[in-house]
């Protein structure tokens, strides 16, 4: 399912085969289960209570910390300045606008300082953190791009999919806006293009490793959102 031969067999029947399209398809059913996760509908329809939104954001900030470090690894391992500029600009947004959304959410919904400083992460949050750290520490540039393509593309996909209710809490609206805007669409398109290019050049073993990283990241996304969904 994850070898270059599998990709070539799939590509033979496609008009314009892209490695990232194939990776997404081989990640089903987890891909669609994440994009269509009921958490995102509850969010967009204003059905998440304030403390439920805040609890999700606390767990997600646990994702964002090693994710920010992973962008740092990507900047370091990128082949040159062109990639470092795009990744660095995304890092700028993440550590300014997006970080501010988290901080103001914790403030607005009264998340105690003790929770902010030492959050009680769910096992699924910890498993995702471990994957991001391992990818940054031991992965090559294509492995890092695979993880980034998954995390950013699934968030773009749900944000484009959902229909927003009127009168959402402004911070919920802000959270959706962060993942549904032209700059973010461009960033995801760039990540996909760069992974398509880098994957093309990998030897067979590295190609399989990259594809497995992609699929595992999708599985972690699904498990994380299943765990944070209030029931
Ligand atoms: C779990 C998760 N995946 C992806 C994103 C988008 O960066 C996010 N904020 N959280």
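-> sequence recovered:
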């Amino acid at each position: 399912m994850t070898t270059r031969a599998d990709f070539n067999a799939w590509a033979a029947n496609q008009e314009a085969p892209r490695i990232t399209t194939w990776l997404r398809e081989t990640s089903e059913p987890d891909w669609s289960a994440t994009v269509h996760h009921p958490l995102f509908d509850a969010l967009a329809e204003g059905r998440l209570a304030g403390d439920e939104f805040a609890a999700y954001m606390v767990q997600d900030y646990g994702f964002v910390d090693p994710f920010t470090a992973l962008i740092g690894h990507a900047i370091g391992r990128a082949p040159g300045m062109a990639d470092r500029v795009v990744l660095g600009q995304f890092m700028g947004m993440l550590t300014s606008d997006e970080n501010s959304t988290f901080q103001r959410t914790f403030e607005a919904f009264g998340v105690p300082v003790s929770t902010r400083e030492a959050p009680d992460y769910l096992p699924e949050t910890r498993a995702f953190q471990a994957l991001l750290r391992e990818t940054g520490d031991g992965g090559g540039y294509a492995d890092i791009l695979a993880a980034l393509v998954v995390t950013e593309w699934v968030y773009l996909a749900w944000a484009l999919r959902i229909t927003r209710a009127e009168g959402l809490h402004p911070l919920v609206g802000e959270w959706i806006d962060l993942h549904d805007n032209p700059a973010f669409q461009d960033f995801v398109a760039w990540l996909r293009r760069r992974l398509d290019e880098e994957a093309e050049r990998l030897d067979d073993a590295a190609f399989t490793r990259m594809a497995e990283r992609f699929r595992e990241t999708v599985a972690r996304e699904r498990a994380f959102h299943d765990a944070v969904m209030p029931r």
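The chain has twelve helices and no strands.
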